[in-house]
Amino acid sequence: MNTLVIVESPYKTPAIKSILGKGYKVVASKGHVRDLPKSRLGIDTENNFEPQYVNIRGKGDLIKSLKKEAKKADLVLLATDPDREGEAISWHLTKALDLDGGKVKRITFNEVTKTKLKEAIKNPRDLDINLINAQQTRRILDRLVGYKISPFLWKKVESGLSAGRVQSVATRIIVERDEEIAAFTPEEYWNLFALLATESGDELTAKFFGSGGEKTELNREEEVKKIISAVSGKTFKVTSVKKSVKLRKASPPFTTSTLQQEANRRFSFPSQKTMAIAQELYEGLNLGDKNIHGLITYMRTDSVRISDEARDEAREFIVKKYGKDFYPETPNVYKSKKLSQDAHEAIRPTNLLTTPESVKSKVGNDTYRLYKLIWERFLASQMRAAEYDTVNAVITSAGYDFKTYGSTLKFAGFTAISDDMPADAENEQTSTLPALGEGDILLEKSITPEQKFTQPPPKYTEGSLVKALEEKGIGRPTTYTPTISTIIARGYVERSGKFLDPTELGKITTKLMKECFPKIIDYDFTANMESDLDRVEEGEIDRIYVLREFYGDFVKQLEFADTALEKVKYEKPVVETDLICEKCGATMVEKEGRFGKFAACPNYPKCKNTKPLKTSGEGDGSSPPVKVEGINCPVCGKGMVVRKSAYGPYYACENYPECKGTRPFAKDIGVPCPKCGKRLFMKQSKSKRVFYSCEDYPNCDFSCWDAPLAEKCPACGAMLLKKKYKNTVYCSKKCGFTEERAD
Question: Which one, out of 214, 363, 719, 732, has a CA that is 20 to 30 A from the CA of 499?
C-alpha cells in the first residue's frame, strides 16, 4: 500500500522517514494551510459565528503539491502534533486537499521513536471534532477581541495598536507588578546573631528567636540594643536539642511551564528559545550515525504523568547504575494540577540510555544543557528521597531564646544525579553543628546586629511570568511563549536584562482596558474561559454556546467604550541620538518612518533636518562612511563605501557627489561556490531578503537563502547551510544531517 504521512514540521520528516521505510512517503504541511483572512473579521456573527477560512497566502504551491501526493496515495495519515492545534491543522488539510473520508486517518504520537510510531500506525482514528471545536472556539474568540478592540485603540490612543484576549491580561500582570513596586514602602527590621563556642572551642552561630517560646519580631534599633545589653556577658545555656531525619523529595518531571521557568532561572533562556530547542529535541537530531533521533517526548504538556513503560525503564536504569537502595519501595507518582488537561505525558527523555554526556559532542551547547536538564529532572523524579540528619537547638540567655539549625546528608537519594538539581523549594543547605546536649553552657564570642529592610516584590522574568499565568489559569502550554513574544513585539512590554518592564504604552493601554473592557482583562474571566474551552474539548458544552455567552456582553462593552471615553493623550518616549543637528545645534532624536528609523531634529517644524542613523559599515553622520576594501567604483575606479537607501544597503563611490557610481550590495563571505569553485557573495533582493550567489552569475546559477558554511556535511560531503535566525546547520543536499550550534 502506498501511504502518505503528513506532519507539521519539515524537520521531523527525516526521522519519521528513517523509521517507516518503504511504502511510506513523509511530507510536511509547514504549520497551518488555512486560517481566517487577515483583511477582514472573517466571522459571521449573525450566523452562529461561522468562520470563513481561506488558504494562507504563499501556501498555494505547497497545497498543490500536497494535493498531488494525496491523489497518488492509497491512504493518507495525518500526523500533525498531538494537541488541539495539531488536530485543527489536520482538519484544515482535509478541506484544503479535498481529502476523501475513506482514505484519510489521523495518527498521534508523543515521541518520535520506532515503538511509538509503529503503535500509532496500527491504531489510526478519525478526526476528533471536539478537539477541533475547542481550537476553533479559541481562534474565533481571539479574532473577535483583536479585530473589535484594535480599531477602538486606534481611535482612542494611537493607530497601529492591537489588543489580544490573553496578551492583554499578561500585560496587566506586568503593569500591576510595576505599580506594586512603585508603591512599596520599605519597612525596617533587624536580625541578631550570637557567635558562641563550646567548652572544646567549637564555634556555632545562633539567631535571635524571641522569649518564652514565642517568636518576637525586631523592628527598631532600641529593641536590639536592649537585648544585646541584657545578654552581653551572661551565660548561654542549651535548653532544647531535637534530632530528626528530614526527607527532601525530588521535583516532578517537567511540564511546559516548569521547563520554561527552570531554563530561564538556570540559563536565562527566553521562553521562545527554550521551546525552539525543545522542539528540535522532540523532532529529532543527527547524532553522527546518519539517523535522526527524537530525544524527548512532546514538549507541550501540563501533565506530570508518565507511562508505565517509562517508569519501568527508569527503575531498571537506577538500580543498575546507582543500586537498588536508590529506587523507592513504592514508585513515585505525581499529581497534575487541577486545571491541567493531562492529555500527554510529562516531558521526559525517550531513551535513558541516550545520556547527556553521550550527545554532548554532537549537539550545540544550549541543546546539551536543556537536554541534560530534562534527562536529570526525569530520572531524579523516579528516585528515592534524599535524607538529612537534622539538629534544632534552642539556646537561652537572660530570658531570651536563640535558635540554631544544622543538617548533614545521610542518604543522597536523587541528589546523586546532580548537586544543583533543585526541588520546588529552596535547595537544602547542609551545615554541621558541634555536639550539643541539653544543659551545655556556651561561651559568648560576639553579638552581631544586622539592620535589614523589606524588599518590594521582584520584577517578572519570563520564567516567573509563565508561572503566574499558570497559577491564575490563564493560557495553556501552547500559548505561553506566543503570548510573551506578542506583548514584547507590540511594544507593551520590554526586556530589561532578564526582567520584563511595562512600557508607557503598555500602562496606558492596560488602564484603558480596565476602564472600558473590565471583563476581557479580568483574571477570573480569562481563566474561566480556558475552562470552557477544556469543556468544549471534552464535549460537555457546545462551542456556539460559549461564543454567544461571550459576545453578548462584549458588544455592550464596545458600545459603552466608544461613547464614554475621550481620546487618550499618548506621546512616544523621546530617544536621543549622539548626532548634532548642524543647522540649529540641537541633539537629534530617533524617529521612525515607512522605511525604518532615522534621526530628526527635535525643533521640527522650525528645523526639518534629518539624517540616516548609523548602520553597519556607515559613519555616524558627522564623519565620512567607512571605506570597503577590495571593491572599486565601476565609473572612476576609486574606492567605495556602504550607504543605505529605502531599499537597503548599496555601494556608492567615495567621491560622491562628483562621481555617482554605484554597485549592488554584495559581500564576499569567504566560502567557495560548490558548483564552480569561485567566490560566494551575500546580496540583497529587491524585497530586502538576504541571499547568497556565485560571483560568476549568470554563468553559474548557484544561489541559496540560508548562509553557506566553509565545511562539508559529515554524512554525504555536500555543503552545509546555516538557517536564518536559528543556530541550526543542515545539509544542502538534504541528506538528513542537521546539527545545532552554539551562538
Answer: 363
C-alpha cell at position 220: 527598631
Give the tens place of pLDDT for each residue, 361-395.
Answer: 888 899 999 999 999 999 999 999 999 999 999 99
C-alpha distances out from residue 600 to 582, 614, 619, 624, Å? 11, 13, 16, 19
In a domain, residue 69? The reply is yes
* Partners of 443 in beta bridges: 197
Cα distance between residue 727 and residue 364, in whole Å: 8
* For residue 151, cis peptide bond before it (omega within 30 degrees of 0): no
- The conformation of residue 716, written as its DSSP 8-state character, comes to T
Query: Is residue 593 domain-shared with residue 556, that is, in the same domain?
Result: no
Residue for grid cell 537585648: 227
485 and 525 in a single domain? The answer is yes
Instruction: Using DSSP bridges, classify how beta strands 610-612 and 627-632 pair: parallel, antiparallel or unpaired.
Output: unpaired
For residue 711, what are the CA distances in angstroms to 50, 175, 674, 676?
Answer: 53, 48, 11, 16
Place of cell 477544556: 534
Residues 373 and 262 sit within 8 Å (Cβ to Cβ): yes
| Domain termination site, one of 363, 381, 399 | 381
First-to-last C-alpha distance (Å) of the chain: 45
Q: Indicate whether 489 pLDDT > 60.
A: yes
Q: Is the pLDDT of residue 243 over 70?
A: yes
Q: How far apart are CA 563 and CA 518, in angstroms?
A: 16
> What pairs with residue 192 in β-bridges?
449
**Does 686 share its domain with 705?**
yes
- Where does 157-195 have alpha helices with state H? 165-182
β-strand 43-44 against 493-496: which pairing, if any? Answer: unpaired
Number of domains in the chain: 6
298 is catalytic: yes
% the chain with pLDDT above 70: 91
Name the residue with cell 516532578: 252
* Mean pLDDT (the chain, rounded): 87
Whether residue 719 has pLDDT greater than 50 = yes
Cell digits of residue 526: 480569562
Helix 256-267 / helix 462-471 crossing angle, nearest 10 deg: 160
86-143 per-position pLDDT tens digit: 999 999 999 999 998 789 999 999 999 899 999 999 999 999 999 999 999 999 999 9
CA distance 268 to 266: 6
In this structure, is the dihedral angle defined by the CA atoms of residues 269, 275, 276 and 281, taken in order, positive or negative?
positive
How confident is the model over 500-510, as pLDDT tens digits?
Answer: 999 988 998 89
The C-alpha cell that represents 88 in the structure block: 485543527
Cβ contact 654:639 at 8 Å:
yes
Same domain, 209 and 243: yes
Give the pLDDT band (50/70/90) at residue 657.
confident
CA dist 387 → 241, 266, 308, 315 (Å): 19, 25, 27, 20
pLDDT, position 319: 96
Range of the domain at 174: 145-181+462-564
Same domain, 377 and 296: yes
Does the residue 658 lie in any domain?
no
116 and 25, same domain (yes or no): yes
Q: Could you tell me if 43 and 16 lie in one domain?
A: yes
Q: How many CA atoms lie within 13 A of 170 on its CB side?
A: 33
CATH number at residue 28: 3.40.50.140
Catalytic-labelled residue, pool 11, 53, 298, 692: 298
Q: Does residue 653 sit within a domain?
A: no
Instruction: Give the C-alpha separation, 526 to 483, whole Å.
Output: 14
Cell (9 digits) for 511: 488602564
Burial classification of residue 52, based on how many CB atoms lie within 10 Å of its CB (0-12 exposed, 13-18 middle, 19 or more buried): exposed
Report yes or no on 139 lying in a domain: no
> Is the pLDDT score of 734 beyond 60?
yes
Q: For the chain, what percentages of helix, strand and coil (3-state, to nearest 5) are there?
A: 35, 25, 40
Q: For residues 244 and 215, state if they share a domain.
A: yes
Last residue of a domain, one of 381, 410, 442: 381
Instruction: Give yes or no for residue 208 having a pLDDT over 90.
Output: yes
Nearest to 374 by CA among 503, 277, 478: 277
